[in-house]
Specification:
Layout: H1 15-39, H2 43-59, H3 68-99, H4 108-123, H5 126-137, H6 141-165, H7 170-177, H8 182-217, H9 224-233, H10 237-265
Helix pairs in contact: 3-6, 3-8, 4-6, 5-6, 6-8, 7-8, 8-9, 8-10, 9-10
């Protein structure tokens, strides 16, 4: 007599886990449906807008190569904004990162205050900062640089403080036992450990600032973004297309160079 073969495949997950995953999946789907209803952004609207999308895209081609010479200066201004903002933010983040690192700053009040300050900085979008500074200082490069400095400072200080907290404390403890002061411990035991990561993060934030400075220009914060905004406002789509292509090429080149430098350092 042959034994009856069990043709049912064994389950990989227990029934309780399956139920939890099903509930989570249903909640996510429900959240998407609720968001779609509340925002009136339906798939039907997307499909109906596709023909208009193609009509607009066609207007961007061919790009007007004659304006290339005229956008070089604002493009250079955009890069300069990112360089200045990244440099200032990288200098300002050094003391803030040390104060926000729990293994360096033993005073809990100072540690908590600096952490809270950095958290507040990161909650403010760069575009909102640009709008505020344009209102304070008027249209130009300065509001964009100030917005990028604050935006970069929040990111850099957070990343570097967490890097400091993960370093090996044995060298610092050994220097403390030999009578070294705080400055000596930071200079000879801490900085050598975090310097490669510090340079990597600064280059990464520089890449972000290049892209962000273009967007900030749309609200009057200087750079190539202002020129792009003007061309779009006056329906000069071929001019705008050339600007977009130049921005794309510039970002790709800078990211490539930055990546190679980071790979060589870290």
């Amino acid at each position: 007599m042959k034994l009856e073969e069990n043709k049912t495949a064994p389950s990989l997950l227990p029934a309780k886990t399956k139920f939890k995953l099903s509930v989570i999946f249903a909640l996510i789907i429900g959240f998407y449906i609720l968001s779609t209803v509340k925002t009136n952004a339906t798939i039907g609207d997307l499909i109906s807008g596709i023909p208009n999308m193609f009509k607009v895209i066609v207007k961007f081609f061919p790009p007007n190569l004659n304006v290339f010479v005229h956008i070089l200066e604002p493009m250079a201004t955009t890069v300069q904004m990112a360089i200045i903002a990244t440099t200032v933010a990288s200098l300002l983040c050094i003391p803030l990162s040390l104060l926000a690192a729990q293994n360096v700053t033993t005073n809990k009040f100072v540690y908590t205050a600096v952490r809270t300050f950095l958290n507040i900085l990161r909650t403010i979008p760069d575009l909102v900062l640009a709008v505020i500074f344009v209102g304070l200082f008027g249209i130009g490069v300065l509001p964009g640089i100030l917005a990028l400095i604050i935006f970069s400072l929040g990111i850099l200080a957070k990343l570097i403080s967490e890097t400091i907290e993960s370093v090996d404390m044995n060298p610092m403890e050994a220097m403390s036992a030999s009578g070294a002061n705080t400055l000596q411990k930071i200079s000879f035991a801490l900085i050598p450990q975090v310097l490669p990561q510090f340079v990597s993060f600064v280059l990464y934030v520089f890449e972000i600032n290049i892209r962000a400075s273009v967007v900030l220009g749309l609200v009057g914060a200087g750079g190539i973004g202002i020129i792009l905004s003007q061309q779009l406002r006056f329906y000069n789509y071929p001019n705008a297309m050339l600007i977009i292509l130049v921005i794309f090429a510039m970002v790709v080149i800078i990211e490539y160079i930055s990546t190679k430098i980071r790979e060589a350092i870290v």
